[in-house]
């Protein structure tokens, strides 16, 4: 029985890339002669080297899975791509058995020697400062690619931190030095956060909604967002309506030219909608990890994050930090598909 996985959807492909240390992918077409010629060799490698959650061989029919082919810039068949820790490490265009075998067996040997020593799967960081959650395997904190000069935030309380606060590299003041969420004694007054500056978080103003525009300095592939929100602990004297909430429903839009108005956003389908529950928030850091549909967030030059409502009955929402997790990537356009290996006229 073949061990090769035939991909049936972008979600399935994304899941395999993130769950298997090495993924080898054959982008093919049924009408492609060279694809058929090298297929038996590919199956031999799959049968010999496939290892659960470690080395996975997949096949993607570019005619049936055009979204995946476009995401990875496939313009000719066969094309073989090898992913390690969810990142592309090798691309082989054309039916070249020697190159394919050498590339695959080299990585398989590395996986065998390094897999037990922590060489794969370690959380990584780009050194951009504090992060409130572990980084996914193969990705880094790319928040330093945010174009802070052109950020925009609608419906924010002007007495608190401004939009740049969200991307500050420092640990939020509301996280204790022991690593747990601090008990904040109500809302800090304007201009007083303990150091003569504004508090280092943002809150919505007239209601619970906020609209954030995030432009980037480079094209990114975005895996996830880390949102930190640490509302103050309630006391008997507090009015529950005055206590800010954590975000609950979030709409994310990719590659918008500017911030969206609230009514405008209601009429535009979101690239992804997320609903957070109390279980999504880390008790120590107040951070929720939002995993995005990776194939939908390739070649991203900007994001709009629309906080639709909060988790509770209050009137305001609070956000302390936002981190962008992914990798730098160059845009690649889907061109005309062609096969490689046949002579002209064949």
List the helices and strands and how they pair.
Blueprint: E1 5-6, H1 10-19, E2 22-28, H2 33-49, E3 55-61, H3 66-71, E4 76-77, E5 79-84, E6 87-93, H4 97-114, E7 140-141, E8 152-154, E9 202-203, E10 210-228, E11 247-254, H5 262-266, E12 272-275, E13 287-291, E14 300-310, E15 318-319, E16 321-328, E17 338-339
Parallel strand pairs: 1-3, 2-3, 4-17
Antiparallel strand pairs: 2-5, 5-6, 7-16, 8-10, 9-15, 10-13, 10-14, 10-16, 11-12, 11-14
Helix pairs in contact: 2-4
Task: Give a brief outline of the structure.
The protein is an alpha+beta fold. It has helices at 10-19, 33-49, 66-71, 97-114, 262-266, and strands at residues 5-6, 22-28, 55-61, 76-77, 79-84, 87-93, 140-141, 152-154, 202-203, 210-228, 247-254, 272-275, 287-291, 300-310, 318-319, 321-328, 338-339.
Terminal Cα separation, in Å? Answer: 33 Å
Which class best fits the helix and strand makeup? alpha+beta
Low-confidence stretches: 115-126, 177-196, 331-340, 342-346
- What gyration radius follows from the Cα positions, in whole Å? 23 Å
Taken as a percent bin, the fraction of beta residues is 25-35%
The overall pLDDT, averaged over residues, is 83
Number of strands: 17
**Largest sheet, strands/sense/barrel:** 8 strands, antiparallel
Shape: elongated
Question: Which range best describes the helical content: under 10%, 10-25%, 25-40%, 40-55%, 55-70% or over 70%?
Answer: 10-25%
Order of helices and strands: EHEHEHEEEHEEEEEHEEEEEE
Helix count, DSSP H or I runs of 4 or more residues: 5
């Amino acid at each position: 029985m073949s061990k090769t996985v035939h991909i049936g959807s972008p979600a399935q492909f994304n899941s395999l890339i993130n769950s298997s240390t090495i993924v080898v992918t054959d982008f093919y077409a049924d009408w492609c002669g060279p694809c058929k010629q090298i297929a038996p060799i590919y199956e031999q490698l799959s049968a010999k080297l496939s290892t659960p959650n470690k080395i996975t061989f997949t096949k993607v029919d570019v005619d049936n899975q055009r979204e995946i082919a476009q995401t990875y810039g496939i313009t000719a068949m066969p094309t073989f791509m090898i992913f390690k820790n969810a990142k592309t490490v090798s691309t082989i265009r054309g039916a070249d058995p020697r190159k394919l075998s050498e590339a695959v067996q080299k990585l398989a040997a590395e996986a065998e020697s390094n897999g037990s020593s922590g060489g794969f799967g370690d959380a990584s960081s780009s050194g951009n400062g504090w992060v409130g959650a572990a980084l996914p395997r193969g990705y880094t904190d790319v928040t330093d690619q945010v174009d802070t000069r052109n950020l925009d935030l609608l419906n924010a309380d002007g007495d608190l931190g401004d939009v740049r606060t969200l991307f500050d590299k420092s640990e939020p003041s509301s996280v204790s030095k022991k690593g747990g969420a601090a008990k904040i004694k109500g809302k800090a007054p304007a201009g007083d956060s303990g150091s003569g500056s504004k508090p280092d978080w943002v809150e919505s103003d007239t209601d619970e909604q906020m609209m954030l525009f995030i432009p980037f300095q480079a094209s990114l592939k975005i895996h996830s967002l880390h949102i930190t929100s640490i509302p103050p602990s309630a006391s008997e004297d507090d009015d529950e309506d005055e206590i800010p909430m954590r975000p609950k429903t979030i709409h994310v839009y990719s590659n918008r030219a500017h911030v969206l108005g609230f009514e405008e956003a209601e009429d535009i389908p979101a690239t992804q909608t997320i609903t957070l529950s109390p279980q999504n928030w880390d008790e120590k850091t107040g951070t929720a990890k939002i995993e995005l549909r990776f194939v939908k967030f390739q070649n991203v030059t900007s994001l709009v994050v629309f906080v639709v409502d909060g988790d509770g009955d209050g009137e305001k929402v609070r956000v302390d930090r936002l981190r962008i997790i992914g990798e730098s990537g160059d845009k690649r356009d889907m061109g005309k598909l062609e096969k490689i290996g046949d002579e002209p006229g064949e």
